[in-house]
User: Which sequence fits this backbone?
């Protein structure tokens, strides 16, 4: 499992790059997580489905920071 950070100024193609990489690797990877701030999660889900040209995705998930923290705490058996 790896972590790749993509950063840069607004309008430089970071989002397009990320979703194109996901499209290339969707069937090669175990699970792909797209971590976004809560206010962008719905837009990211729409963009993912649009890029993959499908109605559902099993190997990729858009998750925000709060949901990710809840999932981690649930897995390790601790409460916040």
Assistant:
């Amino acid at each position: 499992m790896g972590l790749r950070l993509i950063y840069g100024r607004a309008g430089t193609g970071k989002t397009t790059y990320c979703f194109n990489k996901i499209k290339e690797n969707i069937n090669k990877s175990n699970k792909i997580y797209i971590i976004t701030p809560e206010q962008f999660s719905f837009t990211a889900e729409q963009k993912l489905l649009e890029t993959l040209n499908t109605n559902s995705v099993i190997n990729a998930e858009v998750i925000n920071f709060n949901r990710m923290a809840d999932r981690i705490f649930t897995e390790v058996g601790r409460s916040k």
Notes: The CA atoms of residues 26 and 33 lie 11 Å apart. The chain has one domain: 14-76. The chain has a mean pLDDT of 85.
